[in-house]
Each structure stands twice: as structure tokens, then as C-alpha cells.
Amino acid sequence: MPALGEFELIERFFTRPARRAALGVGDDCALIQPTPGMTLAVSSDMLIEGRHFVSTVAPELLGHKALAVNLSDLAACGAKPLAFTLSLALPSVDEAFLAGFSRGLFALAEREGCELIGGDTTRGPLAIAITVLGELPAGSALLRSGARPGDDLYVSGTLGDARLALEVFRGNVALDEEAFRSVRQAMEAPAARIGLGLALRGLATSAIDVSDGLVGDLGHILERSGVGAVVEIDTLPRSAVLAAQPIEVQRECLLTGGDDYELLFTAMPERRDAVAAAAGNAAVAITRIGQIEGGRGLRVVDRHGNAVTSRGRPFDHFRS
Ligand code: ADP
Ligand code: MG
């Protein structure tokens, strides 16, 4: 890479003094020592221009989101973030882009105590691959497989805003400037629910982060746990902006919208007070949206218990 050489680029934008790591950026390997007795939790996510983000997104937001989506996987396991690696393909050395990207990335990394310890840098179509490392006490990970019939089903925050923003970009929905700004924020700068994930250790029977939409991600819990579930659609938490949309749009965004990065989890009804206290301690709103049942599959019902469909088919508003 001319202009700024590869090593100068890494030094300038992606090297910070190692704090927790025994050895950070700059050698052949990074070295990291987990706290004795803890298990490492490892997860990777990749973001490709055109598929996961648009070229016009602000670099700072992209840096934030690339790490946030990875931290969200740690949150869903109840792991505490330790460190991450960053592999970057860059079409050119754009210093303004790199400065913004690294600012957004490190702001979140420092807030969550997650240290950049290495990576790889190459020329190519813009792509960002991050691997995060976290730790948790052996045997305490929140898994997709632990839901049992009778468990309550909860979700954090609100659902559907990121999808609504995407539909505005696609020209399918029009919003005024203020409303668009708020849903765009949900799409471009999601929070990772790390504190909530930690607080739910020993409390939630299963958990997943909602990255592909409620129906799809709940489906993973149901399949891995060998159970079914009922969700009452009117209880699904939504922003005021989404709540102002036609009911079909709301339902589509709530049920199938992706990119929410909220936690979806189950817990025994006897633990309701403890779950509420955990969410309070983490300062994250949670909502009880349904229940795990015996049998298989998901039933989405209205408040009268009637099955909810969209134009005779389940939830495909924007595709029809
Ligand atoms: P190697 O040839 O051994 O793979 P590199 O020349 O690719 O090493 O990288 C040199 C050092 O810079 C390594 O410590 C590597 O982990 C780090 N590094 C490379 N790219 C990045 C990046 N985008 N962010 C953080 N560290 C990076
Ligand atoms: Mg390399």
C-alpha cells in the first residue's frame, strides 16, 4: 500500500498500548492470559460493503457497528469482553476513513474494556472481519439449548427500528427527518447488551442476540432446545416511530426485521423478580413477550389468542 505504508497505517490507526493483553499489536502473535478458572468465549462476524452496510455510512459508525455486532454475540453468551482482532480489506488508503473508523471502533472498545490485540490488513474490496474473545466462569455460558416448557420469553430494548430504517433507504417507507434520524441510529449504531448478558448468568435458561429477526432467531432457540413457543404480538416492544406505522409494517419489522442486536432469552417464571432486578442493574428495559411450550414451532397470536398472519401468509409484507 503506497501513500501510507501498511505498517505505518497499523501503527497510526490500530495500535494502542496493551493493557490487559500480555502482548498486543506488533509481533507474530498476541498473547492473552484469561483469568484463572475462566473459559474463553470466541466469536467472529464479518461485514462486507454492499451486503452489510452502504458505502455512504459514516466511517465512525461503521467502526462502532463492526465491533458492536461482535460484542453482541459475547453478550448473548453472558461473556465479559477481553480482546479482539481486526482484519481489514481496504480498496485504498483513505486516511479520513481510517481516522473515523478507528475513532468509532476504539470508543466502543474502551467503553467495554475490549482491547485490540492484532489483525491483518490487505488491499481489496472493503470488508471488515472481527474476532472477539471474552471470558466466563466454566459452565456458566448462556446457550441456545436450555429453554424448557413453561419458561417465560423476554426481549430487551425495542425491535424493528433498524428494519424500518432499511425500508426507508429502499424507498418503501417515508418518514419525517426526526423519525428517520432515530431509526437510522438504531440501524447504524446498535448497542451491545453486555451488561444484561452478564446479569443474566445463572438466571436465563437460554439466550440469543436478535441479529436476523425475532422469528428466525427465536427459531434457533426452539430448535436447539427442542421446544415450541407462543409470542403475543401486541406485547412486542417498539419505538414510538414504529408504533406510528401501519400495523402490517409494524408486524413485519417486529417479527422479521434484522439488525436489532437485542437479547432474546428465557427464564423460569419463579425467577421473574430476579430477572427484573438483573435488567434494572444493567439499566436495560426488558419485556415479557410470551412463553415456551411443549411441542414444536412458533405460534404468533394476538391478544385474543388468534393466530396472526399477513395477507393469508405469515409475515412477508415487504416481499409481497
Ligand atoms: P504477519 O505478517 O505476521 O501476519 P502482519 O504484518 O500482517 O504480520 O501484521 C503486523 C502486526 O500488526 C501483527 O501483530 C498484526 O496482528 C497487526 N495487525 C495487522 N493488521 C492489523 C489491524 N488491522 N488491526 C490491528 N492489528 C493489526
Ligand atoms: Mg498478516
Give the secondary structure arrangement, pairings included.
Layout: H1 6-14, E1 38-48, H2 59-77, E2 80-90, H3 95-111, E3 115-123, E4 127-137, E5 152-156, H4 161-169, H5 177-188, H6 194-199, E6 206-210, H7 214-225, E7 228-232, H8 240-243, H9 247-256, E8 262-267, H10 272-281, E9 286-293, E10 297-301
Helix pairs in contact: 2-3, 4-5, 4-9
Bound molecules: adenosine-5'-diphosphate (ADP) and magnesium ion.
Residues 10, 14, 25-28, 86, 88, 116, 118-121 line the site of adenosine-5'-diphosphate.
Features:
about 325 residues, alpha+beta, 6-stranded mixed beta sheet, 4-stranded mixed beta sheet, 10 helices, disordered C terminus, binds adenosine-5'-diphosphate, binds magnesium ion
Compact description:
Helix content is 34%, strand content 24%. The protein is of the alpha+beta class and 320 residues long. The radius of gyration is 20 Å and the shape is globular.
| Strand order in the sheet with the most strands | 6-8-5-9-7-10
The major sheet is characterized as: 6 strands, mixed
Helix tally equals: 10
Q: Which structural category fits the helices and strands?
A: alpha+beta
Q: What is the chains' assembly state?
A: single chain
Helix content: 25-40%
Mean pLDDT: 92
End-to-end separation in angstroms reads 46 Å
Strand content: 15-25%
Say how many strands there are: 10
How much is the radius of gyration in Å? 20 Å
Principal-axes shape call: globular
Q: What is the H-and-E element order?
A: HEHEHEEEHHHEHEHHEHEE
Which ranges are low-confidence, i.e. pLDDT below 50, for 5 or more consecutive residues?
312-320
- Say which molecules are bound, naming each kind only once: adenosine-5'-diphosphate, magnesium ion
